[in-house]
Description:
Blueprint: E1 7-11, H1 18-31, E2 35-38, H2 43-49, E3 56-61, H3 70-83, E4 87-91, H4 94-98, H5 102-114, E5 123-127, H6 135-148, E6 152-154, H7 166-176, E7 181-185, H8 191-199, E8 204-207, H9 210-222
Parallel strand pairs: 1-2, 1-8, 2-3, 3-4, 4-5, 5-6, 6-7, 7-8
Amino acid sequence: MKVEKYIDHTLLKADATLQAIENLCKEAAEHHFASVCINPTYVKKAKRYLQDTDVKVCTVIGFPLGANVTDVKIYEAKRALLDGAMELDYVLNVSDVKNGHFDLIEKEMSAFVALKEDNRDLIIKVILETCYLTKEEVSRVCDIARQTKVDFVKTSTGFGSAGATEEMVSLMKTTVGADVEVKASGGIRTRMDLETYINLGATRIGTSNGVAIVSANDQSNSEGY
């Protein structure tokens, strides 16, 4: 299985250095990953490092709690686009889900989708942080995602109490069907992990361990596996 284009090569640690971001971009270009996923402060640098490559620049919005009001998130998103981001992974407000304010969730998703009007190739991924949600809440949010036509629903920030699980990825894909894609992230470290989530319907994998995963893939291919 060719896995590199499933991978969003990720570095979102608070202490990430410019040198670490440059290394991340070099690795992504070398292995032809789908994107690098970085904090907004590094978008301009990543855009420059990745010019003339097939790797997209992805950044996070409202990260990691999603607790900003929508207007603030949209400002952050617009600034990221100006700096060169091509994909936005934004965190929904988990409290809105818990409070049953699904109208606010729909309004926020629609505001992000509206950004695509002036950015036709923009990809919007909404991070659910499934570790804090019930199966019923995940289904409800995924229904809204399908209705508003976001591009992806994503499991996790990697900063919550747990990351992706097979149960949640399967539920998310079943709910959104063919209308929305699924990104699994959080705790995905091995080729087996990656293939498990792909087989459940995920088309993107967020991981900081992409190089090891594709290296394992190359090793398996060389052994005829």
